[in-house]
Specification:
elongated, alpha/beta, 310 residues, 42% helix, two-stranded antiparallel ribbon
Amino acid sequence: MSRATLLGPAEIRDLADLLGVQPTKKLGQNFVHDANTVRRIVAASGVSAGMTVVEIGPGLGSLTLGLLEAGAKVVAVEIDKRLAEQLPKTVAQLQPAADLTVVVDDALRVTTLPDEPTHLVANLPYNVSVPVLLHFLEHFGGLEHGLVMVQSEVGLRLAAEPGSKVYGGPSIKAAWYGEFRAAGQVSRQVFWPVPNVDSILVAFDRKPARGSELERRATFALVDAAFQQRRKMLRQSLSSLYGSSAAASEALERAGLAPTQRGEQLTVDDFLAVARVSDVDALAGASVAAVLHADEGEAHEGEAHEGEAD
């Protein structure tokens, strides 16, 4: 395929002007304008001809075109109607034979797609990157592999091992679904406008389910409680779920763990072990209650497109 099938700096600015798009901090809009970076991301993702890929927040289409250039079928989820309407036009002009489907919706609300993607490749919105990633892993079991670009701090947390300073809730929840690893840095200079944060590529491979959906919710409730008070011992941080520190200690001991440990010392399997010796239904209910009472304003603050928060 011709090497002129991707967007460059001039095309990005022309499209932004055409649509009246002004990159903002609130939406984390920093558009990728370097074709070599796009091809590097696509190559690192392992996507090849014939694969079906879901992309979240395609924005002006830089990464979309890179995935299509590789011969993949792309399902792009875009919340901004202006961008969603323009994307097929851009693709038709540069790659008329490409197979693209655009879903106009909030990625955090999408539970079905018109196809069954096996790969997720995206420049995730900074302000909702972890919730969006976990949402798609939860609802689309066919996603076997993926590569996402996120703020470096977030990416390092996703790939962190127990005991590290950045290990926390996102690390454990990601590990429930599979193995995550850092896959390379991305220069600030490939974005327009240039952001004030560094970006990193994080790859993942899904592993067989660790437990049932009920056990997942129970495990995530334990993780949330453990890291709400990160520096406290588990017998204290989990007491809100068990009614007392004594009851929490009993559950931890039955799972073979010391009540004096902290959440950052436990693996996802450790948390699952605690869930399994507890009232799973009650813990899962606590997880649902936490979701229902979460601040939706933060979770749905807006889909950023093609970049990190400025």
